[in-house]
Amino acid sequence: MATTPGTADYWEPLWASGRRYREVTSTEATLLADHVGPGRGRPALDIGTGEGSLARHLHHLGYRTTGIDFAPSAIATARNAQQGEGPAWHLMNFTSDDLSALPDAAYAVVTCRLVYRWMDDKAAFLDRVRQVLAPGGTFWVVTELAGRREENDPYTHLGITPAEAEKLTAGWSVVRTADLDVLRCYALRP
């Protein structure tokens, strides 16, 4: 049986073998801080947390952060990298598990870094994000855009299409963007 990138069966062997992904840069961390502001103990949720670097940035901004991922080795890596106080880590598939299993009913910030592209049903994913985003909260998405890499780059397929970007931004009252090389950061508010 073939696995698809939208499943834990695809990602778990990659994390278990030591595969790691693009680090959060200082520029990206500054953009996040500028768009979400200080946490003041409010809850934040990092979907597809991986090794947890974005969740740790939210924690340092003062958010009570929960990082979730459906790959057990990713959660283990996040836990093992933590020194002292930090985010809580939970094994969870955001697209299919019961959202009431999350530690909070609503989050001031929901983040999704390098994950949106892999969602098979993007509309259903966005509906679930809206279910857990607190009124006035911010949905922070970092994703690659199609057409930003050279044609011969082996990773040129990683970007979302203009139609997928339009689906991402539809229905939000506030849409702010900032570009980082091949990535675009979105701050979306209901």
Brief overview, please?
The chain has 190 residues and is α/β, with parallel strands linked by helices. The chain has helices at 8-16, 26-36, 53-60, 72-81, 122-132, 162-169, and strands at residues 43-47, 64-69, 88-91, 107-113, 133-144, 174-180, 183-189.
Bin the strand percentage: 25-35%
Taken in chain order, the helices and strands follow as HHEHEHEEHEHEE
Q: What would you report as the Rg, rounded to the nearest angstrom?
A: 16 Å
Count of beta strands: 7
Helix content: 25-40%
Mean pLDDT reading: 93
Low-confidence stretches: none
**Structure annotation, total helices:** 6
> Largest sheet, order of strands side by side?
3-2-1-4-5-7-6
- Class derived from helix and strand content: alpha/beta
Morphology call: globular
- Largest β sheet strand count, sense and barrel closure: 7 strands, mixed
Give the N-to-C terminal Cα separation.
Answer: 40 Å
What does this structure look like?
Helix content is 30%, strand content 25%. With 190 residues, the protein is α/β, with parallel strands linked by helices. The model has no long low-confidence stretch (mean pLDDT 93). Helix 1 crosses helix 4 (72-81). 36% of the residues are buried.
Task: For the structure shown, list the relevant keywords.
alpha/beta, 25% strand, 6 helices, globular, 190 residues
Tell me the layout of helices and strands.
Elements (H helix, E strand, L loop, with lengths): L7 H9 L9 H11 L6 E5 L5 H8 L3 E6 L2 H10 L6 E4 L15 E7 L8 H11 E12 L17 H8 L4 E7 L2 E7 L1
Helix pairs in contact: 1-4
